[in-house]
Amino acid sequence: MSPVVVPPVGARIRRARTARGMSLRALAREIGVSASLVSQIETGKSQPSVSTLYAITTALAIPVESLFDAGTDPEPAQALAPTPVGTPPGTVLHALAAFAADPGRRIGPLVEAGEREVLELDSGVVWERLGRVPGADVDFLLVTYRPGGASSGAGGLMRHSGTEYGYLTSGELVLTLGFDEYVIRPGDAVSFESTTPHRYRNDGSEPAVGVWFVFSMP
Known about the structure:
By secondary structure, the protein is an alpha+beta fold. The chain has 5 helices and 12 strands.
């Protein structure tokens, strides 16, 4: 079975932007990119990098995971606060209650391999959603960095609120974390406060694949 393709990211970004009365140029200024790039992303002619995607969702006050949801438009949320460096709710009980009350919007409890929703991002990065419990501020993802892929372009670093956990299952990744650099190999795990400037890149000749949890702070 093929992974489930989610609605175009650009179209959902455009709807969220227009719903907030923000112009294309205003969004571009907010995240520090050209208006033409935002236009290309919204029309599907270009895919955002990981850092640009985080910056856009922060500026629009929507969670990243809302871009996966086919049934509803993105809703404002407590900011994940991820922004590229240099550019200008809930409890467990709440999550469990939401899970029981709104089964149509949850992803799970079982997600089979052919049912995963997929986001193709720029710079050779693919996100596949492994599950979702409404009310839980976490992105649960299978992440693939293709050879030469990186989470942000031109060597730029990104940061966001919360905590990040990752476990690499195959391939090799280089993590730049602040002023330090780490080589992540299969079986290695990373965890750090995501406010620390960071960037992942794949310098190898094979895809780097791992499971990532990114917890946002309310």
